[in-house]
Structure formats: structure tokens, C-alpha cells
Amino acid sequence: MTNGAHNGGMNQDIASPKERIDVILADVCRRHGVSLRKLRAKSRVPFLVSARSEAVVRLKDELGLTFGHIAELLRRDHH
What we know:
Layout: H1 17-32, H2 36-40, H3 46-63, H4 67-73
Helix pairs in contact: 1-3
């Protein structure tokens, strides 16, 4: 799968890193029917865990972010 597969073909050479993060998080939220606030909440209900898992994988695979950076974005504790 190419980097543009999930974001509607957005040219990632043009978008800033923050814009690319925002696009991925917005897409994950839309696909799972949750708000960014809920995605970042402490709740561990299965549908939120699933959405967070997708966000982590995409941020890691598509942008090469570290787990520590992803944890900060999602307001999670990473040890």
C-alpha cells in the first residue's frame, strides 16, 4: 500500500508534518465514527481501542513517527 492510499491521494511532499498527522487522525476518526476528543480520551471501550490502534499503525507506518511521539499525540502514556 502506498503512502497516499489512506488520505485520498494527498501529495505528502507538499503537506507539512502537522497537516499529515491531522489528515491521518481525521480519517481514522471518520472511519470509526469518533471524535478526536474521544480518540484521545482515557476510555478503553473496544471501538475506541480499535480506532487508536489504527491511528498508531498509520502514524508509525506512513509517517515514521516514534511510539513516544504517537503517545503524546494521542495523550497516552508510553513507557
